[in-house]
Structure formats: structure tokens, C-alpha cells
Amino acid sequence: MGIRYKVERKQANAKNDWLCKECQSIFRTRADLFKHRKDCHNTGNQKYQIVNGKRKLVEGTAWNKGLTKEDSITVANAIEKRKETYVPWNLGKKESDEHRNAISIGMKIAHQEKRAHNIGESRWNNEHSWPEKWFIQVLLNEFKMVEHEHYETEMPFGRYSLDFAWPKSKFCIEIDGEQHERFEDYKLRDNKKDKLLLESGWQVFRIKWKDCWHNPKQYIDLVRNKFIELHLI
Known about the structure:
The protein is an alpha+beta fold.
């Protein structure tokens, strides 16, 4: 607590004198200054706890709340000291080619194993999952649709990618595996993607792969009806 009350000394006083910033009173000891500030300026409302080894304010108002370097010499000194001592963590550091290659290999493996952090977002490798490969065959056999001619796969849309997209009609089909029901981050990501698509005038048709696997004909008929509605066939 002593650090926040260290202030500039008056030239005529002894170096151990402590100055109250509110009323300019001078005290011989720091303890006297603390008692004065608590009794006269209501500065004793702070409560601190040790969190992760650091002292953290959990109740009351921080001593420097609202103060700027123009208002307080203590704040000004703290800012200048920070400028002098701050060094960016990566200053002068460069990743080696070996390190970059290791990261690249690790990311490729993560994508292949479907455990990369951005699964469901824009996929740079454009490798289709097994359900997507199955649906590509359905589009070809049932509707005579050819990839890149009638539709796009893994089409980038903002930070996301669309499983199957018909850009001119603003229509897309998303095939959701079991992970889309089990994990909250997948659900949240799907909700954000759907909201962005709807706000942009797109229609989204989601297929639950588990249900489709048990009754493919029903979902093929649903897709056919949607295609007829949008004049895609």
C-alpha cells in the first residue's frame, strides 16, 4: 500500500516526510499518513485478496480511478517507468524453419483428425468428411449436379465455410455430425453461422447425419422438395 502514497517531497522538509495529496498536510511517518487519509478522506474502503499470486482489489475503489498523468504525478511516473521497462515478448525473436515446419505438420494432422480449433470455420485444406463425400454422390446420382458446376463445397463465408452452397440462390446445406450435438462450442459456432447467413439473406438447410444415415430416402426427398422450391432442378 505504501507505493500508492509515495509522493513528491517538499524541498524544505526532511526526506522522510509524507505528503497528503488531498489536503497537503505533512506527516512524519507513513502510518500517520494512512490513518489521516482513512479518518479524513475516506480512503479505507478497499479490500484486497491474493489471486494467482497477485494482489487484486475485490472491494472499494482503486486509488487511481479516473486519474490521468496530468492529474497525478504518481500516475505520470508510473507511465514513464512502464515505457522505460516494457519490452515486447517477441522483440528480436524469429521462428526457425524447423519450428515453422513442426507447427505446419501439427496443424495438418489436427485437421485430418478433426480436432483443429477452427473445425466448422473456413477450412484451408478443403478435405471432405465422409458424410460430405456421401452427399456429393447423392447430388450426382439423384440430381445430376456436378461440383463446381452447380454448387460449391467448403465455400468461404466470413470466417466460416459452407458445406454445400448455391451462391446465386443464396442457399446452403450443412451436414452436422454427432459432435454438433454433443459439444457446446460446436452449437455456439453453428448458431453464429446461421445468424450471419440469415442476416445476409441466405437460407440454411441442416441435415443431422445420424438421422440421415438411418433414413436417407426421407432426407433425399426433403432436399428434392427444397431444390424444386428454389428452381434448382
